[in-house]
UniProtKB/TrEMBL annotation:
Catalytic activities: uridine(38/39/40) in tRNA = pseudouridine(38/39/40) in tRNA
Assigned protein family: Belongs to the tRNA pseudouridine synthase TruA family.
Entry GO MF terms: tRNA pseudouridine(38-40) synthase activity
Name by which UniProt lists this protein: tRNA pseudouridine synthase A
Description of how the protein assembles with itself and partners: Homodimer.
Record-linked HAMAP family: TruA (MF_00171)
Enzyme Commission (EC) number: 5.4.99.12
Record key words, sorted: Isomerase, tRNA processing
Record flagged with keyword ATP-binding: no
Gene label: truA
Pfam families: PseudoU_synth_1 (PF01416)
Entry annotation: catalytic residues: 52
Boundaries of every Pseudouridine synthase I TruA alpha/beta domain copy: 10-104, 143-246
Length: 249
């Protein structure tokens, strides 16, 4: 039995997230269908994360076990032949039997893109939030700095039917930068709560609007109340950018 690690990327504009849905098309469903056409098997596929509907991934990691002998390089080419143009397999390699795409993950990095110009950019449609009011990226970067560290991020989580667990996460990087009219929020952590990055962005936009000061982010974290933070930003600008593992063999 071989354990394979595949890196893929995808434009999530027409998918309802990674995980298979009963009445909607997901990335996992499309990937499984392509895999079956290549190896004639339906192995238990492990994804590194649940990405929300219409969220993109520049790197998404999948592990699966198979007895099929197809070489990794041939598997990449064959899968890309059957996958639609908005999903691509970047590479594949064999890993140790105990490797798990989700549970072996040590951290992830997300980016959120904002097109900050009065005129929309058609080429960034579904790939960036169009925000036409003025943004001071230095002011937002100051606010983002308060996310760094180990905190209870209850204020930055959408509470749904899922059982509430440990809400503490360690953020190692949170910064806002501008390149021309494209403003990008980058955040890395050992894990993320449901809608955490999108609520962070919504809170930063409240800072941009003058409704909050940068230091208010600290107060919002300490409040441990979703009502204290800003709204949930739309999914269109969010990308899973990198996935981190240690000693993958």
């Amino acid at each position: 039995m071989r354990n394979l690690l595949l890196n893929i990327c995808y434009d999530g504009s027409r998918y309802h997230g990674w995980q298979i849905q009963q009445n909607a098309v997901s990335v996992q469903q499309v990937f499984q269908e392509a895999l079956f056409r290549v190896i004639g098997e339906k192995p238990d596929i492990k994804g590194c994360s649940r990405t929300d509907s219409f969220v993109h991934a520049r790197q998404y990691c999948i592990s699966l076990k198979t007895e099929h002998s197809i070489p990794c390089e041939r598997l990449v080419g064959a899968l890309n032949h059957f996958l639609p143009e908005d999903i691509a397999v970047l590479n594949c390699r064999e890993v140790s039997p105990d490797f798990h795409a989700r549970y072996s993950c040590k951290g992830k990095e997300y980016i959120y893109q904002i097109w900050n110009n009065p005129v929309r950019d058609p080429f960034l449609n579904h790939r960036a939030l169009h925000y036409w009011y003025s943004l001071d990226e230095a002011h937002l970067n100051e606010a983002a700095g308060f996310f760094v560290g180990t905190h209870d991020f209850t204020s930055f989580c959408t509470m749904d039917a899922r059982e509430r667990g440990n809400m503490e996460r360690t953020v190692t990087k949170a910064e806002v930068k501008r390149e021309g009219d494209l403003v990008t929020f980058t955040v890395a952590a050992d894990g993320f709560l449901y809608n955490m990055v999108r609520i962070m962005v919504g809170t930063l936009l409240r800072v941009a609007q003058g409704k909050l000061e940068p230091e208010d982010v600290k107060r919002i974290i300490e409040a441990k109340s979703r009502t204290e933070a800003g709204p949930t930003a739309p999914p269109c600008g969010l990308f899973l950018n990198r996935v981190f593992y240690e000693d993958v063999k």
